[in-house]
Amino acid sequence: MTDTYLDLEDYLERPVVTRVPPRRTPPPAAPCTAVRYPAEPVPDLQDAVPVMAEARSHWSALVRRVTSWRPRRVALTDVSSSDPAVLVRLPGRPWPRSRVLAGLLGVFLGGLGLHALYLGHRRRGLWMLGTTLVLGPLTLGVAALAMGVWGFTEGLLVLGSRRGRFARDAWGRQLRG
């Protein structure tokens, strides 16, 4: 028999562990200086007026003018120095809207968007009216049915809500009734 030599170093050798070099500590931060605010108010991003592109056609300008119209707010004019009977109320805030009338318009004529127009939501009301009258016949009544369901639902929400979004008109005033 021959002697077999068993090299234990190959089997019992420890694995080599490489160590990660220690991280360098970051340099100390610069001392905090006082913040200087400008003297005048700084406009917020929401305060910026969007730049409107020039109207491409007569119709787009007309549609923009109709859908973005808001009533003027004018105070009472006092001409009491000449005649006290000449105290004129110029058109200003619209009259308070009725919850019952808006709800009934929504339930019965909701597809035409008359309830939205009554509450001052002109853009939504005109879209509903246009969709019903133009797309209704083109889609064999499917668009008109969708607008009718939408208006019916909004009418019920206006009739049933005392607080929240459906209890106010477009100017944020509470509906009466």
Automatic annotation (TrEMBL):
Keywords: Membrane, Transmembrane, Transmembrane helix. Its main location: membrane. InterPro entries: TM2. This is NINE protein. Residues 97-139 form the TM2 domain. It is a multi-pass membrane protein. The chain crosses the membrane at residues 100-119, 126-152. Coiled coil: none annotated. It is found in: Membrane.
